[in-house]
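Internal ticket #5521
Category: modeling
Description: The requester needs a full-assembly model to guide mutagenesis choices. All entity lines are attached below as received. Residue total reported by intake: 580.
Assigned to: D.W.
Attached entities:
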Amino acid sequence: MVSTEDEVASFVAARRQGLTRYGFMLAGDLASGEDLVQEALVRCLPSWGRLDPQGVEAYVRKVMARLAWRARRHPANLHAPLSHAEPATPDIADRSAELADLRRALNSLPPKQRVVLVLRYWEDLNEAEIADLLGCRQGTVKSRASRAYAQLRQDLGWTDDTAIADDSPATGRDVS
Amino acid sequence: MNPPEDAFETQLRVRMDQLADSVSAGDGIDGTQLYRQGVRRKRQRGAAASALIAAAVALVIVAAAIWLPGTIDGTEQRPSDHLRPVEQNDMFQCSPSAGCFATPSTGSLTCCVNLQGAEVSHAEAERRCTAVWHNLYGPTNLTVELRGTDGPWYEGNEIDVVNWSEFPYGETMEDTKCLIPAAGLEDTVGSIEPPLPASDDLAGVREACGGFLGWDFSDWQVVVADSQDGRLAALLGTTNGDLAECALDTEHLNDRGVLDLDEFFADPNIYTTHDVQLVKAAEIQNYAYERSDDYRVEPSWCQQKRPRTGQWVAECLGTGWLAGPEPAERMVITDATGEEHEVAVNNGWYAFAGTVVNHAAVPEGGCDPIVCDNSRGELRFTVYAADGTVLADYSENKDLQPIQ
């Protein structure tokens, strides 16, 4: 008989890449992203046997999003203060200044604002879907997203007069 | 699918995809390791919820960053202005120093607080941390030992310990810390004795929060406190800007009055639990001012209540700072049912342990008509100054431009 631990380990082995990437986007750095994955898995353990096998990943992702939503402080702000020129972190290859700027700007947002932006613009969810996912009001999503987006534009210097070079096509998102 | 968007939003999607794709995730670790790390972390977190405090981070002192939180006793100095990071000096570790790290590029501030009481011997530190372990996890023959031998040791210090992790479940945790409790409080750490004190029982609030952390708060001021529904939310402060965020709940307790870890591990709906966290007032204030100066409720610490049938509890309100140009002294929340909730506010600091109702989501099986029918369900916040002037009156959507 396959134990729950074995089932979980097998699931993680198959879905690790996508889950960790999701955690990274929600939390802001790879270590915190892995924490999110781990925490979500542990929370899912009691109900693992009752989950629809086809819906396990969606459930784990939902738990991850809610955990990130409830984070008190952005973990990256504690682990890697941005004022100290971020060293070449092993968890991410900042191939461009734009990506480094984006990461820095995202990490400077409060956790709730960051999570909403990631779900809105990376996961491509609408406000109602995000509210359902996070278990909060749609108005909350709207207000957080609005403030976060405005702050991000300001931090990145994206003004109406700014020409933004779309130097690369949108890449297919790896959700594997 | 979201509606059409502006060029910046399109660009943001592209950049986020690129950022995500730049991560080399999960190399060097297999699923079993990840799972086991998760279990270990969960156990550690259970311990952390019982008065272990996160490891220190490298910090930089913010000179002149002393701020005196107001008190409901009315005996303390009031702030003249909110704090900003003003100077950046050399790096230092949290222990034995305490202070704040300023990030000039973002304006953010990260701080740590160090308690320091009477000096204790190596053996006494181990005895007290062993007593804490037994209080948290039940009587066993386990003995907690200090990692390393460097002293001196003081009450309130976080120390590295070993053997702490000899959980009934097996694995050994590394780098675990124990806060050396004050004398006589080692048997109360992590425990809650219902009923919780009333909001105006300041001595009781100090005792309940101090007993949980293992620290004597008798010379700390209760800045603001709210006790209702079997929960306590309180902020206690010192004149040098230290704050203790206290959140206690009479649910999920075992027969020793401590967090029932079996229930905690088994119930995915328990997202936050009892805790007393030490923070700098400056950090919370700066955090609030970074993002809002319009008296928005942005709790720095809160408890989440599980939904009851037909109702959803609103977002965590907990404790926090109402950032604005004038000190706030009162706040009323009107929830989806029309019920008004008076929130304890003192000089901008608030605490709320109550339950507010909205209809953010309809629970499976339907929901109470009073919550769902013909109501927009928004929480309305009305913030007052001491003279009754309305400083802010808003629902969450007010003055916010929706994203098209």
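Resolution: model delivered.
Comment from assignee: Residues 73-94, 165-176 of chain A have pLDDT under 50 and may be disordered.
Ticket closed.
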